[in-house]
Amino acid sequence: MRLFKMAVAIDQHHGFKPFSRSQRCKLQSFGHLDHKILELTHTSFSHSFEQVFEADNIHRSFSTPCLPLSTLSGEDLSTSNPRIELVSGSGAPVHALVVEVAIAMASGVHPKPLPSGLGGAYVFCNKSGNNIAVAKPVDEEPLALNNPKGLGGQKLGQPGLKSSIRIGEMGVRELAAYLLDYGGFAGVPPTALVKFCHASFFPTDAGVSATGPNLPKLASLQRFIGHGFDAGELGPSFFSVASVHQIGILDIRLLNLDRHAGNMLVKKHDHNSYVAGVAADLVPIDHGFCLPEWLDDPYFEWLHWPQASTAFSGSELEYISKLDPFKDADILRTKVPSLRESSIRVLIVCTIFLKQAAAAGLCLADIGQMMTREFCDGEEIQSELETICSQVKANVPLVSNDENNSKGEIGISGISFGDLSQGQWKLFLENFNKLLFAVFEDKKCKN
């Protein structure tokens, strides 16, 4: 009977309608958020969290991106009747995922907390006990108000684990990565932003009632990927060149600050075995540290893998050549409107850089190295990409841009494009393309 209480409606515009009722560890730094997007009432949820869930095939990533962002003030939804609503996300795989979770909740299945990671994350199973989805609430993100791992207390919008990414904005980045992974090229699992009402998400101690009125939880929802290992447990000799290249291309486009072995899952073979010499495919997850607000220092676990030094295949070069950074930008502005323009401009710069570098014959390792900072005598040195952008930006007449500055760029320590007006941005891109062409022509001559 409970299934009837969980009925959901889908329309072609808004999805589900509301119910009628390696080297150095990059995780030492931290990120930010948009206070205009996240006008949420900060209820006093408990910070304690002592449940430990033991299960096979739960990924061990230390990254735990979480979610954003629609204004829900004024809503008064009871957690006594479990419900889920799609906030952002589209396509049949996403709709199927949300329906499966809705059915599971209606069947009495409770999300179970994952012990790994720095933020709150919950796994959903179906009635058969198979894991189907992982949810990461925005208010349980690392450093966020209701973080269950002892790393909380700060408001959404403050500096987070990465200074170029704000607390509470990791979920929109997970969605952006899925939207930009055209045709499942890199294999990013179906991802959506949702809001939940479920007693399991609301602590009953500290005076908070699990059955009383509560604001819904905003969370990212991602298809659970069955796997036996992550990349760190097998080592690069097991992985296919194509799989490494596909993930690397995505990471470069999105300037991934946290591509470590734990967030590349090794796909299960039908025979459930892993034999040296039989190449396995990888599935990339946890993209909350992508698309920073300025050129930050990425971390690419694959950078020194032998596959990264192999030349791109013809099909990979064709895929890269067809990428349109301005079309990508429009998609994000339309489908992920809470993502800051400064992050979208980083996407454009990195995609242009990738396209020119690949056309010039550089391999994945060469490109990744040009984007990565180096340490010399204890000091961090700008990457080649940052140096190029610095030179170009220095020749663009700068004028204070009140519209961008009002959005609150916090603690910038890299090259930002958010302070450029539209005219300045256009001039920057023109000069950037010219200088890149000269740089890669010079590299060709030296080679």
TrEMBL record:
Family: Belongs to the PI3/PI4-kinase family. Type II PI4K subfamily.
EC number: 2.7.1.67
Domain of life: Eukaryota
Keyword terms: ATP-binding, Kinase, Nucleotide-binding, Transferase
UniProt cross-references to PROSITE patterns, sorted A to Z: PI3_4_KINASE_3 (PS50290)
Bilayer-spanning residue ranges: none
Protein name, as recorded: 1-phosphatidylinositol 4-kinase
Pfam families per UniProt: PI3_PI4_kinase
Taxonomic path: Eukaryota, Viridiplantae, Streptophyta, Embryophyta, Tracheophyta
InterPro entries: P4KG1-8, PI3/4_kinase_cat_dom
Listed GO MF terms: 1-phosphatidylinositol 4-kinase activity; ATP binding
Domain annotation PI3K/PI4K catalytic: ranges: 108-404
First-level EC class: transferase
Residue ranges the record marks as coiled coil: none
